[in-house]
Specification:
single chain; 81% helix; 0% strand
């Protein structure tokens, strides 16, 4: 409990260091992030960098004594896992589109080759 009290003295809402948002807005960020919004969404709304949003949220949580370092790490690692999953889904979708395109091209080439061979046989038979 002493560490939280020390943190609350160091990180005070009375001495809020961020000019781009208020402590109340940071409290709202915490609620939004717990509800599923991302730092990227909030950063885009306020025209700041994602890490700036993280700093404000961590500062707010330290100031009110709610900071849970392990919980924050779990949250960030879960977000990273989700981002990796979305990336792999996009790559798999791209690969599937490319495979379908290449299969269509191969099929078209086969058709052209067979038509050309048929035409050549007909011309040879007419001679």
């Amino acid at each position: 409990m002493g560490a939280i009290t020390d943190a609350q003295e160091t990180y005070s809402l009375d001495r809020w260091p961020f000019r781009w948002c208020s402590a109340e807005e940071a409290r709202g960020f915490v609620s939004r992030m717990r509800a599923g919004d991302t730092r990227r969404q909030i950063a885009a709304e306020y025209h700041v960098h994602q890490s700036t949003v993280s700093r404000a949220v961590v500062y707010y949580l330290l100031a009110v004594g709610e900071y849970d370092g392990d919980g924050w790490k779990r949250y960030k690692s879960e977000r990273k896992r989700q981002a990796r999953q979305r990336f792999l889904e996009r790559v798999n979708a791209r690969d599937a589109r490319q495979a379908a395109t290449l299969a269509a091209i191969r099929e078209e080439r086969k058709t052209l080759v067979s038509e050309r061979a048929r035409r050549d046989r007909q011309q040879a038979a007419q001679r």
